[in-house]
Design goal:
Layout (H helix, E strand, L loop, with lengths): L2 H13 L5 E6 L1 E14 L6 E14 H10 L3 E8 L3 H12 L3 E7 L6 E8 L2 E8 L7 H16 L5 E5 L8 H13 L4 E4 L13 E2 L3 H8 L8 H19 L3 E5 L5 E5 L5 E3 L12 H14 L4 H15 L10 H9 L1
Parallel strand pairs: 1-4, 1-8, 2-6, 4-5, 8-9, 9-10, 10-11
Antiparallel strand pairs: 2-3, 6-7, 11-12, 12-13
Amino acid sequence: MTSIQKSDILKKTIDAFKNIRVAVIGDLILDVYLWGDASRISQEAPVPVLRVNKRTERLGGAANVLCNLSTLGAKTLAYGVVGDDENAQRMEALLDSFGIVRDGIIRDPSRITTEKQRVIASSQQLLRIDHEITEPLSEKSKKILLEKVKKGIDNRDFDALLFEDYAKGVLDTKTAEQITKLAEQAGIPVGIDPHPGHPIEISGITLMTPNRSEAFGLAGIYQNKTDNEDELEQLNQVAHKIQKKWNPQYLLITLGSKGMALFEKGETPLLIPTRAREVFDVSGAGDTVIATFTLALLAGATPAEAVDIANHAAGVVVGKVGTVSVTKEELFQSIKA
């Protein structure tokens, strides 16, 4: 197959994204950026003084996955819990701007909408300030959320379901198990982007997408620097432990500057080198990977083709600053290049 033929196949796959519906359940986060210049030191303490000249707000956490799915052309549905506050209004406005269906979002007055505020000077992040409540959801909110998801499954409102856990209290093992069982009965594939500090122990899922550090943490294996040969051996050990415990059909481990590795049941591991030309910020790259890989599989791509497309998408977003999504046009251009 020539590179032109391969490019045409990948583009046809991406074009088919518009026919796919994906639901995302998890921690919805508002990412706030304060941009400015820091040219002097405070007289009050030995810290830089930032002169703010711009404030931007973006969708983060589970909402960034929704954003990526949307900019790639898919139809998206959001499930989660926010506070009854101004940040919830800002998040809802951003979701609406991307055409994301938010009927599955609950406002809980006992919580606040999670906000990650980043202070940036000349493209360099100086500080991050988190506003959050990480305690588990109330039984009332948990019940309402479960009912909304069950209704979506019963009505076949989506073709796939993704869990996005950032350890902010929305997801737990019991809730995820209940939802996964319902989805499995309906023939709906389930993916999860896990959090090593808050492992949700469910089995029989379709896809897991940890980064290297998260994968080693989930497997309980010490992480050290190795050459390429030892790296593959270590990754095989990590993958074996994760597959034994969570039993995913596909385990996709992102490796930063080294690309990504796909472990599929009964198949030889597939290592893909990175497509990134320049790396400015890896924030949200994992969100882009799970969104793109899921869409590609649902669009009929082979696992190898899906990894290739996801790798191109990740290469685009790490070349930008902050939590951002990738568009179909950017993805086309990356594949063409």
